[in-house]
Design goal:
The protein has about 230 residues and is mainly α. The chain contains nine helices and two strands. It has one domain. A two-stranded antiparallel sheet has the order 1-2. It is rod-shaped, with a radius of gyration of 29 Å.
Length: about 230
Amino acid sequence: MSTVEVIKHVMLGSGAEWVMWLLFGLSALSVTVAGERWLFFRTKTERNVGLAQSLDRHLASGDYEEALALLRPLTTVSARVAETGLRMASRGVAAAERAMQSTLAAERALLDRRLAILSTLGNNAPFLGLLGTVIGVVLAFDALGQAPSAGADGPSTAVMGAIAEALVATAVGIAVALPAVAAFNYFQSRITALLDESETLSNLVLAYLSSDTTSHRGGTSWSSLEDRD
């Protein structure tokens, strides 16, 4: 028996039903990942109206303790990055900038976690559906090949059932892919927005750290703030 015949017999024996069950499982996985990521992003996108203005006001007046107190309770990416820069201010502007870049990289890794699953499902679910379609077409042609030994209604019924199974597999594959792609694109847009917000606060902190007048203002030193942390 040739390799092609072996593969054909495997397809005929298994049918396309297992492909659809696999797609249903992947759909459940996609929904689970999207829900978990949505809940996680809620903790990173808490709206703090006027955060940049409040931080700028505290830094301009020399209230560095108040600036850190403002940032500590927040879980947003921009707040975590800005807080790192303020805590590292006593080590110099370069050290603070590198610390903020390190924190930003760590936060981005958390934001990107599991998004590859959505991307993979969105790209490959249609191909799984196409595999089910191919299996259904093979079943249809096999039913046509058995026409001489079957009754008048036997072949047509088998062919129609195989074609319907093939079309259902294609539809399920597309139905699984579309929500996964939509969720992936949404989370990517949120990541871009979060990184832009963090860059805004990072530049604000660096602007004050780069100024000679912000080293010791209002009787508060950066080193004392670092010791208290």
